[in-house]
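User: My advisor, Dr. K., asked me to get a structural model of this assembly before our group meeting. I'm new to this, so sorry if the format is off. These are the inputs:
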Amino acid sequence: MERERVVFAFFIVLALTLNFGFFLGDIDNPDHHEPFELGAAIVVSLIATVLKFGDRSPMGSTLLATSLVADLQLIVAAALWGFAANLGEPGVSERVFVSIVSLSGGALLANFISVVLLVAETVTVRR
Amino acid sequence: MNDIVWLTMRRLRTPLIVLLLTYFISVCIVVAVPGVDGDGNPVRLSFLDAAYFIAILSTTIGLGEVPYVFTELQRLVVFFLIFPNVVAWLYSFTAIIGLFLDDQFKAMQAHNRFVREVQWLGRPRSLWDRILQRESPKEGLPFYLVCGMGATGSMLAEGLLDRGLHVVAIDRDAALLTRLGIDARFARVPMLAGSVSDADILRVSGLDPRYRSCRGVIAVTDTDQANLTVAITSKLLRPDLPVFARSHQQRVCDNLASFGTDAVVNPYQIFAKRLALAFRSPIRYLVQDWLLSVPGSKLRTRLNLKNGRWVVCGAGRFGQPLIEVLEAAGQSVTVVDVDPDRVAQYEHAVEGRGTEAATLEQAGIREAAGVIAGTGDDVDNLSIILTALELNGKLCTIARQEDPKNAALFAASGTQLVAQPNLIVTRRILALATTPLLKAFLDHLEREDDAFGERVESLLRRRLGGRAPNVWVTELVGPNARGLTAAREEGVELRLRHLVHNTRTALGEDLRCVCLVLERGDLRLVLPNEEEKLQPGDKLLFAGRGQARREISRALQDPVLLLDFATPEQRIPRTAIGRWLARRGS
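Assistant: The format is fine. Below is the predicted structure of the whole assembly, which you can bring to the meeting.
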């Protein structure tokens, strides 16, 4: 068992599960989407990115790219939420909320690809 | 991607993760803790407020800007959050800054900078570069790779830079290179601290085949073994490049020569050979000495070595070849050495250092013709010379000086002939690398008789005016043949006589230089006649003052100066079109 692999796989999968948990629910209902969960998803995704720093293998580079995509989508979603909630008229409009959730949906896809790559790599290593 | 980026990213992993976790957990806790607003209504901080608050907290900026005054509970919680945050930031900052101060990181940066600088030297020049900078040749700037930047290496580098060539330097000693890097003379020399036995280092320093402009490799490190390594590596990687290597042992010299090292320079052998010439023919020795001394220094007078008994102190790698030379020249030799094994090898020998009067007396210094102070220690050598001169003021004195910094001491000691191995190696390699014709001339001088020596001596004495000459080669090609080509178009034969006179005055006085060799293909004329016709492609070896060198290159590069000088009765148009029109008109 390799400690580095365990840690990395843990963060990659956790990023996916948190992202999925946030995404789950009606797309326009703020009560179904917990801000803490979004924050946690961002941080876990960032950590997964940092963990891939300095990995020179081609798989490492691809994983770095996918988690950078997830970071980007999640941070944009969070920034959108922050601006909508604190600037202009109070409360988040339905339209803005839909785009926040759909952005996190995009990140979900990126995280999913990461997990698929991770699994594929693990499978090839075993053989 | 670049090595530095990877190293940075690897090192930053832990600090960044620590920072992210601390920050996020703190924000969550601040959001979770309930508070009250100004009116006493229960309220919680939003994520934005919390993130902002933790940011100013953890960076210890502390703007004190929060939406509402905290409740006691909030304060209590924040109080416990302050410490992990500040510690996390300080840890991350020191880790990041420490990375930039890290030796490994700096070494990698220095390596990258070095590689970039060498690439710049070897970069093929575009047409535009060549227009802007007239001298820059097509394939890159010509440079030599100097391995070992000690006393010899730095003198060599300086000499090469003076001749308009570039230098790339490698040395094992990083502290030495740092010192040299501050020196203004070496400001534009790419230097790398590294082992010369690493083929990869040699490759990026100029042995890579893409560096077409690398002109040669010079191996002058302290150890014969390292020089050997450099020579072998460069002969394997770039068989086309000339290799010049210093060596102090005959065994290593033979080894170096065996795989085609172009020049193996053993300063002790060279000095012994010069001394042999000095015994055989003082006049030819004098001419050789003039041509090899530092340009601009005072011309030395004739060295008269007396015949008789010579006391040689130190029979090591310096003394031993000299003893052979002295014996071959019919002198009797007494050896003084501290090593009983060496003493046992010679017929007349005294065990001792030679710095004490008693030892020298025992060696018969009072009746001796000369003394050679050839130990490896400069102070001992000075002491030997001074003691010997005190006992016998009429002695011929020869001393070995290893450290260039002691030059003033040896000059003050009144020693007639000082052998500086560093200087010998430097001047020999410079001559071989930049003026190979000089070597040819000196070999010729050694073979010729004294009458030839007298002729050269009187020529040089008349033209040089008491100062040691610059020695240079003028090749009649490219821009250096412009005047010659123009003259040939006009049907005027230029002769050597035209070149060595001042073409810019009506007087046409002699330039202060002597043409020593004219080389045309396989033909080599030593001391060519002044009436010799010049042809494009000729190589001329001159010895003379710098002023003469400038006059000659000016005359050669100007289309009509030489032509007007050769045919004073008619003026020729300056431009090629003008000359063509003039020819058509007549």
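One thing worth pointing out at the meeting: Chain B touches chain A through 19 residues (CB under 8 Å).

User: Perfect, thanks a lot.
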